[in-house]
Amino acid sequence: MSQVVLEKIVKSYGDVDVVHGIDLTVASKEFVVLVGPSGCGKSTTLRMIAGLEEISGGKLYIGDKVVNDVAPKDRDVAMVFQNYALYPHLNVYENIAFGLRIRKVDKEEIKRTVAEVAEILSLTPLLERKPADLSGGQRQRVAMGRAIVRHPEVFLFDEPLSNLDAQLRTQMRAEIKRLHKRLGVTSVYVTHDQVEAMTLADRIVVMSQGRIEQVGTPMELFMNPANRFVAGFIGSPPMNQLKAVIVDSKDGPAAQLSETVQIPLPAAEGMGAAIGQSVIIGIRPEDVLLEANESLPTVPLEINLIEPLGSEALIHAVVADEPFVIKTDTHGDIDHLNHITQFYVNVDRVKVFDEKSGLALYRPDQKRG
Ligand SMILES: Nc1ncnc2c1ncn2[C@@H]1O[C@H](COP(=O)(O)OP(=O)(O)OP(=O)(O)O)[C@@H](O)[C@H]1O
Ligand SMILES: [Mg+2]
């Protein structure tokens, strides 16, 4: 298998840059997910790797070869798109075999390969059917089959699940993960869905406006977002962000949220904070307690909406004039949540960002100067 290396990759249309010099190494056999809001440059980046889009600047390596000027068909990559682009007049067998026929692979060899791939993807009973007679999930599997039979060095996926309903998406997500475990092919996967990114990725690349905001394992990004953008993108719902000022307290640096509310900072977060600094405090919806707890700081809230999800509920509230979401267990009843007027902060999990730059004060992956 091959690694994929992007070195200062730029894409411009005329004099508009849409990808601004991206550096990224996808290790051999790694599953990397590019995630970010619409228009941030995910597909453009993927299409440059596939060779479907010309690279305006920088170097792209597949394996140890620079492939900027190598034609898509010679790059040994296989791409799966959102609209599966199956041939409607060919049955499942012929759709999967198509690429092999083009490359004049031996007939018996094609038969064997298609049978094997159909088995992996549970398509064996459907080989005679036309795409029109398949469900969305089955079509998606045929599209994957077409990519797999080629035994490529690299798989590229562009939102392959977004045409499927929620249940099927969860199911196919698990299948893609199993498939990757089994085949171990280097994969780059694009989605705007952070849950998909969290569940599939070895490492996630969070992009915004043609730049990389952070690269890390799902848990690294969840536990230590590098900046407010990542904090507001990863997690569902994402991290709450409240304005505060750093003050000195008997327990070291604390965040003053309002006249009456002060939250002590975890030691590591506090080290990077300066007294008087304007900051944004990040509190995950899961990191609050509703049962009285004397050892933790108390924050008053005003509830404006409760969304029951079954075992859990989301409480939409206002804290210090800013929106705040809490995720809590319901224990089978949401009525009691209506009476809540305050919560307790799990102090150890609080994050701090500089208000001006938006950068996290504590960055375990960066050496302090
Ligand atoms: N041919 C083009 N000419 C000019 N700008 C383009 C062209 N193609 C794409 N862009 C711009 O490049 C940017 C990145 O587009 P891209 O398709 O990579 O976004 P994306 O992250 O895949 O978004 P989505 O989640 O909506 O698919 C967008 O702002 C888009 O408008
Ligand atoms: Mg796209």
From TrEMBL:
Ribonucleoprotein listed as a keyword: no
Occurrences of domain ABC transporter (ranges): 4-234
GO terms, molecular function: ABC-type transporter activity; ATP binding; ATP hydrolysis activity
GO biological process: carbohydrate transport
Uppermost EC category: hydrolase
EC identifiers of the protein: 3.6.3.20
The keyword Hydrolase belongs to this UniProt entry's keyword annotation: yes
Domain of life per record: Bacteria
Alphabetical list of Pfam families matching this protein: ABC_tran, OB_MalK
Annotated keywords: ATP-binding, Hydrolase, Nucleotide-binding, Transport
GO CC, any one term: ATP-binding cassette (ABC) transporter complex, substrate-binding subunit-containing
Name of this protein: sn-glycerol-3-phosphate import ATP-binding protein UgpC
